[in-house]
Design brief:
homotrimer; mainly alpha; three-stranded mixed β-sheet; 65% helix
Chain lengths: 467, 467, 467
């Protein structure tokens, strides 16, 4: 019952010693580094009662856990079910989509806790973690999941782990430059997560260009059921995106506002996606690829500005535009990128994350530059952009300029980092599949015999299975 | 590989210009109306620091966001995944079920924010929104999703958008009459959402009666996998229903109580559904249609009374009864409605929403009429029914009477509104499918080639695909 | 189109009167018992305003609802979607997996509210319930879902209800001994839920040993789609496990800490599971069975210690070990248990719950014994282990000893209880399937005709369906 395969050109995809070695060694390294560096932050430590007295808090409900834990869980679902299932649209790559996403994210969150911890939560030799660190680690891994979308089906699990190691590192550096050095606002990560993650992934897939990929073309499409599974991913990303964009905003109005703006942007995005999906197809039928992806562009594109006074109608406008841009991208740009620029982008992350991410950065810069004390209130203005300490004198328009600089830095980091990592992944030691074996679970997974053939036998008991 | 179809009677279902036009124009209208009317409420506005001082709040945790956001997200999942996947049971209408539900809900929540805003959150010329408005918009759209269940598979996406536009409008009017004029309690919407939504949808499908629907009878059933997808919808509705019924109740005990009552009612409902599903079938086997739907009737039926002192055993009794009523409805009433009254109710919303919604309204009226200061406490009694201001002197039994009046008003609005909208949808301009093309994704969606045929080829490489 | 079946040996699996009778009678009993005993606790009762004054609470946000409701909903999803879908991996038992899990859990939570209520929330003749009771009822049912995993596919729904009745009862007794008599800590239930539930289930399946089970061997595997459905269950269990282990911990730091520890343990567990899944297979391919199950062992194994100062690196170590133990168990132990000890463990709960549960109990005992006032702070130490009242003088090492005793008690209760219940279930009156009909939905469910055959007909219209 084995399927025929072109064994002549097959690469060595034997994972038995390489994958376990990488997993075990790296996990041991995590344990050692966590042992040396990671401790509970004051709100998760058993000394909390003393902390509470010191900070003059009267109730346990003031623990940051209760402000952020529900959002954390929503973000967690987006990373593991959202991305994992969204990438399940390929007909024979469901195990790889959800399983490899699981693997890289589980490793990535540990490494991100360390990398982001060193930059942001390092106090007297220890990284002190709490629920906000968990969210940030998930965010960081989100950018890896995005990049994974570009190379989906064409890489080995070891390559994915290597990419995760490097990308998380570079993410943390880029994030540090943006948030700490440029003092940029980016709560939902239009720049740090989407722009960086997407252009990083696109650069990697460009360098890993496979000229003979059409050999596995028959497996690059979806089937009816795989499209339905992918819709689970789409919907969880869409529904929980308000939590994503508000998860690490300031307590109170900022979280509240970020959720509302994202809700509005996403709603508008669905309508323009449907409109253009039908309009750009001769028969006027809707295309599941667009519905699965472009409907999410509105969430990406308010990632920077959602916590600002973008206003509900401003959010609708952003969502309106991004649904169009993203759908048009799927129809015209993805084929162009592949044929002309040799960028093979399996999931079309250029349309879902790269362009909307850039738009999100720009919208954020404009919204910041347009901020006034009138709109925000005197206190609200300072709080919204954290114009305290050495940033006391920064004006809205200067902030807008720094926001714009943040986009450029993210792009440069993505291109440089993607080129470096792409070159490393090109080394012939990682066990990637041959061109004709791409988009096929059989290479790295024990795949059960097909149900269809069973059923076929049941209904046609007199016929042999393989004549 | 195109499937043969009776082209002779085919209607014009070409969506290429009509659907984009409606989507884009309406979304532009939303942007304009939001621009004129919608602003952040005080708890989401950047002036929140000043607001906090004025209201004498000492902590950001007092922001309504932290009371309601987790419930909001649960409700959001119910609308998009719950309803979307529940309707996926048809063998070849999965894209339409989840995709059209996505489309109408995304439009509906925007229009609902406006309509409900004008009635309930209008202050000095602006609609001020916060998380409670988002929940209410989702609730309103829930009633459209219910009506969609009756006409599932028989309408074009444009018809669904037109219905959404009208139904949201009428919902808001009906809600205003009930909550503001009659001063009725209906936190979980037994009357406003379920009774109204279901009888509205049933009236619409009656008017759109298709005498030749048996032409697509082979597609009106489920297959093994589509039933499993539908169970995702069922379970998310079932699990999150306590959040639904408690989402907009008063802070504190009312939210807490509503969740407990709903939890109890739903648990009882599962057992009686299973009992009657087995009992009403000759072979004694369980029927997935009942499990997918009737198990939810308990949540519908405590929609009005969950926040009242219904008590856990009262909830069990309501759930007990509704599991039976709903299952019996599927077995005996649905076929009767179709053959005698020409009501073609694809999902059986009469059994899941209409009858349990009516029961819910009646249970609410009785529970209200039976309320005493002894049971609720002096303050609790006033708070539970908001007997303040001009309602200061209202007694429990009078409240019960008004609750009953609310049922009647909802029914009248549903019949009148459904008749009007049904008549509009009957116009031959909306691109609805011909009778033999109902319940078929192929009409409005790009459907990928079937996996089964691929696999068939793989396993039988020597055989031609279509002999 | 009926499938051929060996009717000769078929048992009487006719459920028409037996199942409805059990469901209805038991539900009536629940109503009566709830009517006599169950009332709202003070935080869900309409007298809450008075309560608030008495307890000197200034805000509704201090209601326990807001501390625990989001965690409750996550736990609820784990029980109904997590367990229900995880068990969907069998190719033809999806209805049974999710449907019977639904049935037994819906009954179990009601009975658990009563049983646990009598032991823990009984005041002046009434059981006073709130959100914490709902969580505990879900927890209790979790142990039944675990036991269900061992006998999956081999039992009738009545047997499952009977098992639920007894297991919930014994669970409550065991929990009372551990928490109240031994004063043991077990917030995430390594002992009370996992060790007890798994060894209970293994004992039951040992007693129900079926020598001819290989007759249904062809149905005991998975197919491609059923494995993807199962991954939904896996991921929801994995993602929400931090909520599970923190749901009933003390407010503040304990809940916060439990979530972080669980997050870390689960992340490490994924990497060692992947490593050993590949390493233990000749071709080095990953096995979905391991990914679906062993990745969760890390959550089980910190069930006792997650709320303690286990520290993030301690959690990583526990997860590291349990991923290995669990995967090795699937490869070597499960076949051994079946062939030598006649323990037929359908889902491999020995590897996912039994062994990791034991490890969890031991880790908890060690962590407790190693606790010092230095690590926890003076107040934190007392609060973490509730060393108040008559336990004022208990030391950490004595606590460690009692924790260890808790493991032994749970094991004894599981073996004794499992033997008793197994013997009851062996009675020939419950309608269990014959050996050749195991793992087959057709016995207890109306199963729709297969899609595959339909499609086959569509594409091959000239061929008869069953030659």
């Amino acid at each position: 019952m084995e399927r025929p395969r072109h064994q002549g050109m097959a690469k060595n995809t034997y994972m038995r010693w390489r994958l376990p070695l990488v997993c075990l060694l790296w996990e041991v390294a995590m344990i050692v580094l966590f042992g040396v560096f990671v401790r509970f932050g004051p709100e998760a430590d058993a000394h909390w009662e003393e902390e509470k007295r010191e900070m003059n808090l009267t109730s346990d409900i003031e623990n940051d856990f209760y402000f952020r834990y529900p959002s954390f869980q929503d973000v967690h679902v987006m990373i593991f079910v959202g991305f994992g299932f969204l990438m399940m649209f390929l007909k024979r790559y469901g195990f790889g989509a959800v399983g490899f996403n699981f693997l890289l994210a589980a490793f990535g969150i540990q490494w991100a806790l360390l990398m982001q911890g060193w930059f942001h939560s390092f106090k007297s030799g220890k990284i002190l973690i709490g629920v906000e660190n968990l969210i940030n680690a998930d965010f960081c891994v989100g950018s890896v999941c995005i990049a994974f979308g570009a190379i989906l089906g064409k890489t080995s699990p070891i390559q994915l782990l290597v990419m995760t190691l490097f990308q998380v590192t570079l993410f943390a550096v880029n994030e540090y430059i943006l948030l700490n050095l440029l003092h940029v606002r980016d709560a939902g990560g239009s720049m740090t997560i989407h722009t960086f993650g997407a252009y990083f992934g696109l650069t990697v897939t460009r360098i890993l260009y496979r000229p003979n990929l059409e050999q596995s073309k028959d497996k690059q499409g979806s089937v009816y059921h795989s499209d339905l599974f992918a819709m689970i991913g789409t919907l969880y990303l869409w529904m929980y995106w308000p939590s994503f964009n508000s998860a690490i905003s300031e307590h109170g109005d900022a979280q509240h506002r970020a959720a509302i703006n994202t809700y509005c942007s996403l709603a508008a995005c669905v309508l323009t996606t449907m409109a253009f999906s039908s309009m750009l197809q001769k028969k006027g039928k809707l295309d599941m690829v667009h519905i699965q992806n472009a409907t999410l562009a509105g969430g990406v594109a308010v990632g920077t500005s959602a916590e600002m006074m973008l206003t509900p109608y401003g959010s609708l406008i952003v969502g309106f535009i991004c649904g169009i841009v993203s759908t048009v991208g799927y129809v015209y740009l993805t084929p162009f990128l592949e044929s002309r620029l040799h960028i093979q982008d399996t999931c079309g992350i250029h349309n879902l994350h790269a362009m909307p991410g850039l738009i999100g950065g720009i919208v954020g810069a404009i919204t910041a530059a347009a901020a006034t004390e009138d709109i925000y209130g005197k206190e609200g203005f300072i709080k919204a952009f954290d114009f305290t300490g050495s940033y006391r004198m920064r004006t809205a328009s200067v902030q807008g300029g720094f926001q714009a600089a943040g986009i450029v830095v993210s792009l440069l980091m993505a291109f440089a980092g993607g080129a470096l990592v792409g070159a490393i992944l090109k080394l012939p030691v990682w066990g990637d599949p041959a061109a004709e074996n791409c988009f096929e679970d059989d290479i790295y997974w024990e795949v059960p015999e097909d149900e269809e053939s069973d059923v076929y036998h049941m209904h046609n008991p007199n016929k042999p299975a393989s004549p």
